[in-house]
Write a structure and sequence with these properties.
This protein has a three-stranded antiparallel β-sheet with strand order 3-6-7. By secondary structure, the protein is of the alpha+beta class. A hairpin with a 5-residue loop joins strand 4 and strand 5. The relative contact order is 0.13. Among the domains are: 114 residues, no CATH class; 56 residues. 52% of the residues lie in helices and 15% in strands. The chain is globular.
C-alpha cells in the first residue's frame, strides 16, 4: 500500500487519472445522454497522456476545461475538441468538427460546412435574393497559397440556404481582441480558429442558435475578455473539492487508508444502485429547484460517502443549468 501511495505522489498522470474517475458524478450530470461517462473519461485521460504539457498546467483550469467539454458533449480527441495549453493554464477548444456535429445533431439542418479560401483557389461569391458560393480549391499539384477568407454554409430542412463569408481582414479583427491573439490556438491553429469564427457568425441565423451560443460562450479560445465571476463559477471546479480528491488520491490521508478493508486498495468508491439511480434522475432535471428537491429526497437513502458524491453531482448540474 505504501508503495502505491509513493508511486502516485511521483506520477502526476496517475493522480489526474484517478481524479477523473472520482469526478464521474460531475461528468454524468454535465454530459448529454448520447455520451457515456466511461468513454468521455477514457478519451480525456488519453488526451492528457498524449500531451505532457497538460500535466504541468494549473490543475483547476485543466479539470475546468474538461467539464466545459462535457457540458458541450464533445470528446477531447483532437477531432471534436482539444485541450490546449495557454500560458500556465489549460483551455477547452471545441474544434470545427465538434461544432458541426452539434449542428447536425440538432435535426434542424440538412447540410452544414465551413471552409478556408486560399489565394490560388477559384472562388465566386454572390449576394442578393439567391445567395450562393462557388469554391474550387487549387489543383493538388499546386500549393494553395495564403489564406484569403473563410465561409460557412448551411441548408435547413425546409430547403432554406444560409451563407456567411468573412475576409481575412475581418477574421483578424476578431483575433485582435482575443486574449490569445499572440500565442496559443490563433498562432498554431489559425485555420481552425478562422472556420470557427465564421461558423459562429452563421450560427446566429440557425434554428438552434441558443444551443451553439452556449458552446461558443464556453470556448475560451474565442474569448475576448475575462469571464465574469458568475460565469467562471459555472465552469471551475471548486478548489476545496479538487484538493480533497487529490489529497485522497495522492495518499495524504494514508493512515486512514491503511485502516480500511484490504479489498479496497484505494480504488474509487463503487457507485451503489441507489446513487446510480439518483445521478440518473439529476441528469434529467431541467430546473434548479427540482435538482435541489431531489437531493433532499435521496440523502437519507445513501451512506455518507454517496451523499457527498450526490451533492457534488447536484452542484455540477445546477451550474450547468445556470449556464444554459
Amino acid at each position: 500500500m505504501a508503495t502505491q501511495i509513493a508511486e502516485r505522489r511521483e506520477n502526476p498522470v496517475a493522480v489526474i487519472r484517478q481524479t477523473l474517475h472520482q469526478m464521474a458524478p460531475e461528468f454524468k450530470a454535465a454530459l448529454p445522454a448520447h455520451v457515456s461517462v466511461e468513454k468521455f473519461t477514457r478519451v480525456a485521460q488519453t488526451a492528457i497522456q498524449n500531451n505532457p504539457d497538460l500535466v504541468q498546467v494549473d490543475r483547476r483550469s485543466l479539470f475546468g476545461a474538461i467539464v466545459r467539454l462535457a457540458q458541450d458533449g464533445l470528446l477531447p480527441d483532437g477531432r471534436e475538441a482539444a485541450i490546449v495549453k495557454f500560458n500556465d493554464k489549460a483551455q477547452a477548444m471545441p474544434m470545427i468538427a465538434g461544432i458541426l456535429k452539434k449542428v447536425r445533431q440538432s435535426g434542424e439542418v440538412a447540410y452544414v460546412s465551413a471552409q478556408i479560401v486560399y489565394t490560388n483557389d477559384r472562388f465566386k461569391w454572390t449576394l442578393g435574393f439567391d445567395e450562393s458560393v462557388d469554391h474550387e480549391p487549387a489543383p493538388l499539384d499546386q500549393e494553395p497559397g495564403e489564406p484569403l477568407a473563410a465561409y460557412a454554409v448551411a441548408v435547413l430542412k425546409d430547403g432554406s440556404r444560409l451563407l456567411e463569408v468573412m475576409r481575412k481582414s475581418e477574421i483578424e479583427k476578431v483575433r485582435s481582441v482575443s486574449r490569445a491573439k499572440a500565442n496559443g490556438p490563433w498562432v498554431t491553429w489559425w485555420g481552425e480558429m478562422a472556420r470557427k469564427t465564421v461558423m459562429r457568425r452563421l450560427s446566429k441565423r440557425l434554428p438552434m442558435s441558443s444551443d451553439l451560443d452556449d458552446a461558443f460562450e464556453r470556448d475560451e479560445t474565442l474569448a475576448s475578455e475575462p469571464r465574469s465571476a458568475e460565469s467562471a463559477a459555472v465552469i471551475e471546479i471548486p478548489r476545496g473539492r479538487l484538493e480533497q480528491l487529490e489529497q485522497q488520491i495522492a495518499g495524504h490521508d494514508a493512515d486512514e487508508q491503511l485502516g480500511r478493508d484490504d479489498t479496497n486498495h484505494g480504488e474509487p468508491h463503487a457507485t451503489s444502485d441507489q446513487l446510480a439511480m439518483a445521478l440518473e434522475h439529476i441528469a434529467r432535471k431541467t430546473k434548479i429547484e427540482d435538482v435541489q428537491n431531489l437531493v433532499k429526497d435521496w440523502l437519507t437513502e445513501l451512506d455518507p460517502q454517496d451523499q457527498e458524491r450526490l451533492k457534488d453531482a447536484a452542484a455540477a448540474r445546477i451550474m450547468a443549468l445556470q449556464a444554459a
